[in-house]
């Protein structure tokens, strides 16, 4: 299976491929003109799959961008699909479609209780779909309903799935590698310590955000609610799960890290404008990236939610871009790639204090999240899908 088979690459929405050699420069490999603004692509073997807001889903050759097939629906398909070697899944309106990824032939359909507008998530043979009245779990092989959990408001953004085996073991909450000199009493007052015994650690969980400014944790096997936590605004594109924390950014300008077991907050970080992307978190670098309407890629630490970058006199809120960020940042090696509303795609060098490494201009706004592969990045700009390439042996000037 591809390393980037669903939204932000995996069911936890990590958005990270540190195993790749990140680009110090990109060039255009190919482009494909599609019908309608392009969504977030996914990858499997030699094919790129991507939908558009006009209801078409395309299968394109990864090497040259030639169209293999297209599947037409009556609803928007610009939310990221999910692909395995056996099936491609996409949501359109209140229907989930399963297609043969080689031919585009429809294998099964499953009707949801309400319209879905967000990306699907796949984990351990179960497909999770958020919709207008809650979240539903489907058998990935057959489309049969496993469970459906009704919420008080519509689910917004993609569900994030957290497997118990992926969680950090033997390390208490907040006990990551941090120099003691960095900890002070004021910082510790910012963190709300949670009870590690609040919920069992051996459950697989699904996390969703709802339109009434709430984050929910559900048991993945049954859909039973484990906890809920309020936010200051509507969550953008769903949660991101890293180790034992659930990160969400909202439209009021609040980034919050929640304890995965209890929903209690670890830190909050606030800005005056709105956050407009999901967080992308690198715990090994103690760094979180999240885009905002103020034209900045905000950069904080993962311990207290403080600004990470230093200026001459004050801490900087992040990396200034040319326009609003609606595309979630992704990381290849030591390069963070992020696009903005002006059609500018940026490469930010994490090994050099987040210095701007390169810039590439697309012909339309970048509103969906790129997909990463070895020496390639796939990203939509307006009605066009771009394949950008790089030489892994090329070093930065």
TrEMBL record:
It comes from the Archaea. InterPro entries: PQQ_b-propeller_rpt (IPR018391), PQQ_rpt_dom (IPR002372), Quinoprotein_ADH-like_sf (IPR011047), WD40/YVTN_repeat-like_dom_sf (IPR015943). Residues 1-22 are annotated as: Disordered. Residues 94-164, 166-349 form the Pyrrolo-quinoline quinone repeat domain. Signal peptide: none annotated. Pfam families: PQQ_2. Residues 9-22 have a biased composition (Basic and acidic residues). This is Outer membrane protein assembly factor BamB, contains PQQ-like beta-propeller repeat. The lineage of its organism: Archaea, Methanobacteriati, Methanobacteriota, Stenosarchaea group, Halobacteria.
